Amino acid sequence: MNSPDAIVEVEHLRKAFGELVAVDDVSFRVRQGECFGILGPNGAGKTSTIRMIYGFSPATSGIMKVFGLDFLDNMRAIKARIGVCQQENNLDPDLTVLQNLEVFARYFNIPRPVALERAAALLKFMALDHRRNARAIDLSGGMMRRMVIARALINQPDLLILDEPTTGLDPQSRHQVWERLEELRSKGLSILLTTHYMDEASRLCDRLIIMDHGRILVQGTPADLVKEHAGHEIIEVVEPEDRLRDYVKLRRLRHEDLGHRLIIYINEGDGLFREISDTYCNEGCIMRRATLEDVFLKLTGRELRE
Amino acid sequence: MRITPPDISRRFLRVWQRNLTVYQESWKINFIPPLLEPLFYLLAFGVGLSAMVVGIQYQGEAVSYLRYIAPALLAINIMNNAFFENTFASFVRMYYQKTFDAMMATPLSLDEIITGEIIWGATKAVIGTLLMQAVISLFGLITYPAGLLIIPLSFLGGLAFGAIGMYFTGIVKNIEIFNLPVFLFITPMFLFSGTFFPIENLPHWAQQIALVFPLMHLTAMTRALAFGVYDSSLLIGLGYFALFCLIFFPLALYKMRRRLLK
């Protein structure tokens, strides 16, 4: 399993907590310079997977290589080259923004002048310059998140790992985070992220896996996955009539019947839509492009995960 | 479970340094308790109680009650500084602030994080001792130069109380449960370790129990040094604390691994 451009190689990774198997036979590769996404509903095993990759929790079994190095034998060297942005905003609340970066740089044995130089550049990059002397606890949610990302970059990592980077942020903050991450990726930084936001994954990820119940369901580029599992377009019919159901079955269209809503996956143009909307639609009937969310819901089901 | 040897490099100092940085942010407030506390005690015991206490002896000689309890105040201060730092304060960092989580994503190992925390607890004991001893010395209650040895002793005592504090941090479910070791371990020691009265005043069985208390040994040692007496309590105490650390430091590492490496 040695591919020259793989930053992360994971094979048959497994993590069990007693009886509960959180990650089951997971294999994937993250290539140099790409943004790789791990998607899945709550409890799918996303966080458990990346926690093993940044050395937070030991794998039950499986092979892991990061930067081509065997993980267990080179944990310290590997951790020195990755930046991690965990789910919680675990900044030091009593310290200022700048001090947070200085203290964190010391964990990597970065000399102080270098740390200060990098901190200044990172605060500028993350638009936190004006709050450099604010206490971390006084930052807004969006600023804290940007700050955690800035902190993860203090060691100039070769791989950035983000666990749900925009969960809980307002739309403005999310877009700001996305822009920054896109900029980092365009500079060649490899990124591994988990998310349950499909718009985030479509926008940022070059390739992704969708996980559920600890296993990988599918793997590919967002566009390919949409094409393969949801078609090009989707017709949604609210309160469908039974004769539409019959029609869909007769034409053998890929569809999902949710009772009050019928979802039809189509590859053809809008001829079919016209036919359906003219003949069968009394109330709502819309056609839209298929998205990753359609793929996700189709594969992981629609029942609540709590 | 597989027992792996501790993974500790000099990098643990970075954890220590982090706590120092936070401490420096509020040093003015942090300095107040060790400066005021001995004054309160000396006032209460010196003015209030002293007149009623007669016949206190140390090494066969009559001594003033103030001189008797002054070294005990230092010993209690060492215990409290390290124990509370590595229980409540470490727990807040571990559980509420997720500081350890952030550290574990860096080249630091968990063993280094815990070591840094315990060394920091011992450091706080030293800082507290320096301040408190300065105040107590103003009243002429400590003999020098022997009294200077109390400072390195405060580090050793701090290590011991920090290690056992960290052990509790590794096993408690929530922060409320610390009240249990405080009530069952710290408070009885505070009262029955030869701090405010000689343990010889206790019934024989209670004296035997007091012998296992770390605070009993620490008080005996600070008292010997404060009086400038180099007696066997110093050697016995050194052996006791070396053994204590040898047991509770690895145990703290082990319990924290079990708690955090999942």
Describe this entry's structure for a reader:
The complex is a heterodimer of chains A (306) and B (262). Chain A has 306 residues and is α/β, with parallel strands linked by helices. Chain A is built from 11 helices and 14 strands. Chain A has 2 domains: 32-55 and 74-220, Rossmann fold; 227-300. Chain A is elongated. Chain B is mostly helical and 262 residues long. Chain B has 10 helices and 2 strands; from the N terminus they run ααββαααααααα. The model of chain B has no long low-confidence stretch (mean pLDDT 93). The A-B interface holds A 17, 54-58, 76-77, 79-80, 82, 84, 86, 88, 90-95, 99, 102-104, 106-109, 151, 155 and B 11, 14, 17-18, 21-22, 25-26, 97-99, 101-109, 261-262.
H/E series of chain A: EEEHEEHEHHHEHEHEEHEHEEHEH
Q: Greatest contact pair?
A: A-B, 30 and 22 residues
Count of DSSP strands of chain B: 2
The CA-CA distance between the termini of chain A, in Å, is: 37 Å
Global outline of chain A: elongated
Percent strand of chain A equals: 25-35%
The largest pleated sheet of chain A is described as:
6 strands, mixed
